[in-house]
Amino acid sequence: MRNIAINSLGEIFLNGSCVGSPISTAAIYIRDKVSALKKDKGAINKAIHEAFDKQIDSTFTLSEALSVKSVMDKQAVNDPRFRIYASTSTVSGKMTAKMVTEFIAFLDDHFAWLKIYTISQNLEADIQVMREGKHIDQSRPADQEHWDYGPNHGHVERQVEFSWDVTDLTIRQINTLIAKAKEATGEIWEAYGVGIL
Q1: Tens digit of pLDDT for each residue in 49-81?
Q2: How many domains is the chain partitioned into structurally?
Q3: Fewer beta carbons within 10 angstroms: which end of the chain, N or C?
Q4: Bridge partners, 161 (sequence order)
């Protein structure tokens, strides 16, 4: 069984090896052909999309290519707060797309964790721990030989991910879910949200 994964940047992996991304396709295309299109942005974007589609079609079976393209279309909603990624199940072989958003707080901040877990339940989001470890808050000014440590350096923190299965949702349904999640998490986002570029 072939294992396909697509990260939130749109990089596609087949059995653990990166086989393409819109960014690398765009870079190669622009380098090789941009002068022929005379920097017409619309034509360039269309040509990059077509080149990436050809790359997907030549790498994957028809069924796999349709699944990959469906996930890539859904990734149009990606922003620093909500992202979509996908992978094939090792059991069923079916590709599953997940939309995620992340939060981080100090482990002993019981008020934060009560709010985070309550909101995840209200949103019917799966929640999983992404990382737990010591907070790093240190710097060394260029003119000093020693490190300066912030007040929370070494304090244990936990980062979690809310996730929803969006495999069978349309873009409109995903946008509705995002709006609902943004409203529900607005209060905790400012204090604990983790944005990804």
Answers
A1: 777 788 888 888 888 888 888 888 888 888 889
A2: 1
A3: C
A4: 102, 128
